Amino acid sequence: MRKRIGIDLGGTKIDCVLLSETGETLLSARTATPSSYDGIVAEIARWARAALKQAGNQATIGIGSPGSQSPRTGFWRNSNIVACNGKPFAADLARAIGQPVKLENDANCFALSEALDGAGKGFDTVAFFTVGTALGGGLVINGRLHVGANAEAAEFGHTGLPWPTDEEWPPLPCFCGKRGCAEQYVSGTGLARDYTRATGSTLSGKEIVARARKCETEAAAALARLQDRFARVAANIVSVIDPDVFVIGGGLSTLPELVEELPPLIARYSFSGAAQVKVLRAAHGETSGVLGAARLWD
Description:
Nucleotidyltransferase, domain 5; alpha/beta; 33% helix; 5-stranded mixed sheet; 2 domains; 298 residues; 12 strands
């Protein structure tokens, strides 16, 4: 086994980690995400080369980023870091660093980390949600990422919100160009938008949760709608995949409404109405992404 470098690109920060052959952390660093594509490539390459130097130039490099690579064109697509879209991102990174890299969707990296040695360890089929500003997904089967023929598997946030209510009609537009995508409802952004729609007041997701904890009626109702929508999305996945476990990460994964309290609500919406669903919180927290990126070569 060689040392492993993992890099996780986010909208505001880039994380880098160097792992030993046995998995110990030898280097951990964080830097701000540049605004331009060239700046992003240069900054990732800078940290990758620094980690390589510490590793004696003997290490694999895995990188996680929002979006995915088109199998047809090789270009990056569907990223909320829009500067990377339409670019040969993986090829440019490999050229800048000076060695091959594996570039993968960031939620897939989260899923891989949690399936291999996190909350999903020991389960054959692990479906992962990252619930934060948006709604990401990943799927690991028998220890291997399942990305699909078009590299579009497990884009749970861009499935349609199942069984919409009258209040959820007409469906909301999504940045992907379609309407009714689940992440427009099940996310921190969706929670804030829903509260504003119901009350006319603007609050952040954190403020809504804080008010719900104080039993403010409108905030509690918004949190209950978020929970119900998440349960519907998960039940839809049960109907297609029926995973052994759901692992929940991201900023909203601290909420018991979206982890411990979710299984009976998923069961209500399942085909049988009585599915036994296991839901666990991510074990590695926000470090799952960079750790999973480091293990893309495993």
